[in-house]
Specification:
2 strands; mainly alpha
């Protein structure tokens, strides 16, 4: 029985890793082409979905972000697995697939920002 459970668990871990890695790659690509102000906003002011404490009660759609909304709209179109899901408060929040991708994207953007920021301001 443990073997039967272990196979799906490994599959889930791999899928989660894939979303994160895809987000990481997309984040590096975006950071390399972003304007300085966009990069600064993403690294210093943008809050990823998992860090917004009131998200379940108020809802959240990253496509509505004033600076990154257009970019995230394209990402939602690009990846069929990304979408919104309903919470118990009858609000909508990004699904787990997007949140994993977003974490990878955010980590890559922040690493890029800190690398260039440190280089520019030793």
């Amino acid at each position: 029985m443990d073997t039967i459970i272990e196979i799906p668990r490994k599959g889930k871990v791999q899928i989660e890793s894939d979303y994160y890695e895809t987000g990481w790659q997309d984040g590096l690509m975006w950071a390399n082409h972003a304007r300085y102000e966009e990069l600064q906003y993403a690294a210093n002011d943008y809050e990823i979905t998992n860090n917004i404490s009131e998200i379940l009660s108020v809802g959240y759609d990253p496509r509505g972000d004033k600076n990154l909304g257009d970019y995230f709209s394209k990402i939602f179109e690009k990846y069929a697995a990304f979408g919104l899901e309903r919470t118990k408060f009858n609000t909508s929040v990004p699904n787990d697939a997007f949140c994993l991708w977003e974490q990878g994207w955010y980590d890559a953007v922040n690493e890029f920002w800190h690398t260039i920021h440190t280089y520019d301001n030793p």
